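Ticket closed. Logging final result for Lipoma HMGIC fusion partner.
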Amino acid sequence: MASSLTCAGIIWAFLSFLCAAASCVGFFMPYWLLGSQLEKSVSFGTFRRCSYPVRDESRQVTVMVEQCGRYASFQAIPSAEWRICTVVTGLGCGLLLLVALTALMGCCVSELISRTVGRVAGGIQFLGG
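Final structure:
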């Protein structure tokens, strides 16, 4: 297993992967904001929500759905700001994963990552962050 990375490059690759994985898990988990509504514990993030109110039209009451799930559509996300946050955070996670997986491949493949590619990858990581 030949590598063109230095010791610092190998550490960068593994830390990049750990940070990208943590960012993606944080993006998909619905525990950004916690609170209560209708005497039930609720939580939501930009992408998912748990224990949310739904209007029951047959009985004309609001009931709590006690399960976690994604929003039904992109337009169902509560506000334009949350929609923008969902897109920006998702793109950032994608960029971080791209760089991290490329860096991990650089640990195994000789001459995959040069000094220029490393600098470009660092810039992409900065943009993703």
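The mean pLDDT is 82. No further action required.
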